[in-house]
């Protein structure tokens, strides 16, 4: 039986950058919630980073973004097939969702699976903010 990967970290951000020389990972603009004046709202570039270990064998990782209230999918991503040689390996997984449309205010959830088996979930809130009222222009000085 194939091992179930252990998730060390599971984060959302604007960009995941992998240095071509050192293979080090940089996460740009970690995001835990999103604010919008109106809906639907679009996030132009959303990525999820997962660090995994304790896996061995062939895997396809899938990411789903769901409306937590309805379980309706609003985004998804899939990794290419990965062969993990040893359970001691640390696997850095970057899944790009691209532009995502959030149809309404509320709670959303990212779900990560490996070969169809659930691994991890992460809540993501989208909140409506009210614009600040613009004060009226100051009256010109009298004189």
Task: Report what the structure shows.
The mean pLDDT is 93. This protein starts with 5 loop residues before the first strand and ends in a 15-residue tail after the last strand. The chain has one domain: Sandwich (Immunoglobulin-like), CATH 2.60.40. The chain has 143 residues and is mainly beta. The chain has a 5-stranded mixed beta sheet, with no helix packed on it. The chain has a 4-stranded antiparallel beta sheet with strand order 2-1-4-9, with no helix packed on it. It is built from no helices and 11 strands.
Q: Which helices and strands occur, and which strands form pairs?
A:
Elements: E1 6-18, E2 25-30, E3 33-36, E4 41-53, E5 57-59, E6 61-67, E7 73-78, E8 82-84, E9 91-102, E10 106-114, E11 117-128
Parallel strand pairs: 3-11
Antiparallel strand pairs: 1-2, 1-4, 4-9, 5-8, 6-7, 6-10, 10-11
- Count the beta strands: 11
Work out the radius of gyration: 20 Å
Structural class label: mainly beta
Q: What is the annotated CATH architecture? A: Sandwich
* Overall number of structural domains: 1
Descriptive terms for the model:
11 strands; four-stranded antiparallel beta sheet; Immunoglobulin-like; five-stranded mixed beta sheet; mainly beta; 143 residues
Short description:
This protein has 143 residues and is mostly beta strands. The protein contains no helices and eleven strands.
């Amino acid at each position: 039986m194939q091992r179930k990967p252990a998730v060390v970290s599971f984060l959302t951000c604007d960009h995941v950058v992998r240095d071509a020389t050192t293979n080090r990972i940089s996460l740009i603009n970690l995001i835990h919630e999103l604010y919008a004046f109106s809906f639907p709202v679009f996030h132009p570039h959303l990525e999820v980073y997962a660090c995994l270990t304790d896996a061995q064998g062939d895997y396809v990782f899938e990411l789903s973004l769901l409306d937590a209230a309805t379980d309706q999918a609003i985004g998804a991503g899939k990794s290419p097939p990965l062969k993990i040689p040893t359970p001691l390996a640390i696997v850095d997984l970057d899944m790009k969702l691209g532009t995502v449309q959030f149809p309404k205010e509320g709670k959303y959830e990212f779900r990560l699976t490996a070969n169809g088996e659930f691994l991890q979930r992460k809540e993501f809130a989208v909140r409506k903010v009210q614009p600040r009222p613009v004060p009226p222009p100051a009256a010109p000085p009298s004189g």
